[in-house]
């Protein structure tokens, strides 16, 4: 588990093709690794990766075909910058929100605009994720815990303060940049719980009928 509070910006140092998937060497820069052991997890641009080797200047991790297909890691070349966060410990402060490192989908930066000393960033999420993104709710973008300022359909808006712009990969974003998105884990589990027994059947999903049966609506179609 992670908090979404980025601890350092690292670099993709090397990519090695390994039988259909990839082994990545991530140079971790100022992120200390003295308390990291083989098998530990490091969140890399929002993706939970398992450390398989520690060469001294960073770590190596295996990236599966599933991860390559459903995150931005498959397209990041050597030299690309990545947000890094080590896994939580019992003594860690939960300064952001609960982040699993399991990316739900890839979004896209639509626009950036100055707002006093901050930057307003508009992103587009995949349509299937739009229902999990709420005004003033939490979302994880490339591993960074952020608060949603506004929502319109599948688009949502963030306010990025100078500290975040300087200490994460947000400073490199431009319109068209693809980003890893992880929605609030509470929203995902709430949807599944509301489905009740229907969740055991293929194709089950939320409907007005399901919501009405569970007391969330009056049951009236609109």
Written overview of the protein:
13% of the residues lie in helices and 38% in strands. The strands form two sheets. A six-stranded antiparallel barrel has the order 1-2-5-4-3-6. It has a six-stranded antiparallel barrel with strand order 7-8-11-10-9-12. The protein has two domains: 8-86, Elongation Factor Tu (Ef-tu), domain 3 (Beta Barrel), CATH 2.40.30.20; 105-186, Elongation Factor Tu (Ef-tu), domain 3 (Beta Barrel). It has helices at 65-70, 162-167, 185-195, 208-213, and strands at 8-18, 21-27, 41-44, 47-53, 58-63, 81-86, 105-115, 118-124, 138-141, 144-152, 155-160, 178-183. It contains four helices and twelve strands, in the order E-E-E-E-E-H-E-E-E-E-E-E-H-E-H-H. It is mainly β and 222 residues long. The mean pLDDT is 90.
Give a brief outline of the structure.
With 222 residues, the chain is mainly beta.
How many structural domains are formed by the residues? 2
Number of helices: 4
What strand line-up does the widest sheet have?
1-2-5-4-3-6
Q: Unreliable stretches, pLDDT < 50, 5 or more residues?
A: none
Structural class comes to mainly beta
Shape: globular
Q: Report the radius of gyration as a whole number of Å.
A: 19 Å
Number of strands: 12
CATH fold-level assignment of the largest domain:
Elongation Factor Tu (Ef-tu), domain 3
Tell me roughly what share of residues is in helical segments: 10-25%
Q: What do the pLDDT scores average to?
A: 90
| CATH second-level architecture of the largest domain | Beta Barrel
- Distance from N terminus to C terminus (CA atoms, Å) equals 40 Å
> Can you identify the CATH class of the largest domain?
Mainly Beta
Largest beta sheet, briefly?
6 strands, antiparallel, barrel
Percent of sequence in beta strands? 35-45%
Query: Could you give the order of the helices and strands?
Result: EEEEEHEEEEEEHEHH
């Amino acid at each position: 588990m992670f908090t979404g509070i980025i601890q350092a910006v690292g670099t993709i140092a090397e990519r090695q093709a390994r039988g259909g998937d990839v082994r990545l060497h991530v140079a971790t820069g100022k992120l200390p690794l003295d308390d990291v052991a083989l098998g530990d997890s490091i969140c890399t641009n929002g993706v939970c990766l398992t450390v398989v080797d520690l060469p001294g200047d960073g770590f190596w991790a295996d990236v599966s075909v599933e991860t390559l297909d459903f995150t931005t890691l498959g397209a990041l070349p050597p030299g690309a910058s990545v947000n890094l966060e080590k896994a939580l410990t019992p003594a860690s402060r939960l300064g952001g929100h609960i982040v699993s490192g399991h990316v739900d989908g890839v979004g896209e930066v639509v626009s950036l605009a100055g707002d006093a000393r901050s930057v307003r960033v508009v992103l587009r999420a995949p349509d299937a994720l739009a229902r999990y993104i709420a005004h003033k709710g939490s979302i994880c973008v490339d591993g960074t815990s952020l608060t949603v300022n506004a929502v319109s359909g599948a688009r949502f808006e963030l306010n990025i303060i100078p500290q975040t712009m300087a200490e994460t990969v947000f400073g490199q974003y431009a319109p068209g940049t693809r980003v890893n998105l992880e929605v609030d884990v509470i929203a995902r589990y709430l949807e599944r719980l509301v489905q009740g027994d229907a969740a055991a059947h293929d194709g089950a999903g939320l409907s007005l009928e399901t919501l009405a049966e569970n007391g969330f609506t009056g049951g009236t179609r609109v």
